[in-house]
């Protein structure tokens, strides 16, 4: 079952989606969907996935390292980026512009969605088009498990940092 970026955009399921780059590469096949939750996400991809991001995974990464991660994503031949633009700071605006320029230079489609549109509905839609229903359900379930595990790891890290800062303040 071949499902492309063009199929997703033309499905009519998500009229809020807006293609902002990569018009010439809409026939890229989508073989999976991933949330870009860690800066080195390229290490966890198998290839031809569509990546969902607000770029928060790169908050603590300098701009040179950010570009290196984009190069790593390119090697995995990602299908497209689906981006929630979160530009509250100048650095977030710069990262978004770097992503957009990079995607244009590599002809990778970039689709923008509003903050009010949840990734999960889009992911579920994609999975039901690239897998049979049983595999789609299992993948969706495992997707949630992985995301919860990553979130838990990040929360534990923050808790440890908070405690560490508290210990230093009390000295």
Describe the structure.
There is one protein chain. The chain is an alpha/beta fold and 171 residues long. 50% of the residues lie in helices and 13% in strands. The protein is built from 5 helices and 5 strands; from the N terminus they run αβββαβαβαα. The protein has helices at residues 5-10, 63-75, 90-106, 119-130, 133-170, and strands at residues 18-21, 32-35, 49-53, 80-84, 110-113. It has a 5-stranded mixed β-sheet with strand order 1-5-4-3-2. Strand 3, helix 2 and strand 4 (80-84) form a beta-alpha-beta unit. Helix 4 (119-130) packs antiparallel against helix 5 (133-170). The chain is globular, with a radius of gyration of 17 Å. The protein starts with a helix and ends with a helix. Residues 145-152 and 165-171 have low confidence and may be disordered.
Helices and strands in order, then pairings?
Blueprint: H1 5-10, E1 18-21, E2 32-35, E3 49-53, H2 63-75, E4 80-84, H3 90-106, E5 110-113, H4 119-130, H5 133-170
Parallel strand pairs: 2-3, 3-4, 4-5
Antiparallel strand pairs: 1-5
Helix pairs in contact: 2-3, 4-5
Distance between the termini: 62 Å
SSE pattern, N- to C-terminal: HEEEHEHEHH
- Give a short account of the largest sheet: 5 strands, mixed
| Percentage of residues assigned to helices | 40-55%
Model regions low in confidence, pLDDT < 50 over at least 5 residues: 145-152, 165-171
Mean pLDDT: 80
How would the global form be characterised? globular
* Tally of separate helices: 5
Proportion of beta-strand residues: 5-15%
**Number of strand segments:** 5
Classification by helices and strands: alpha/beta
Rg (C-alpha, Å): 17 Å
- Sheet with the most strands: spatial strand order: 1-5-4-3-2
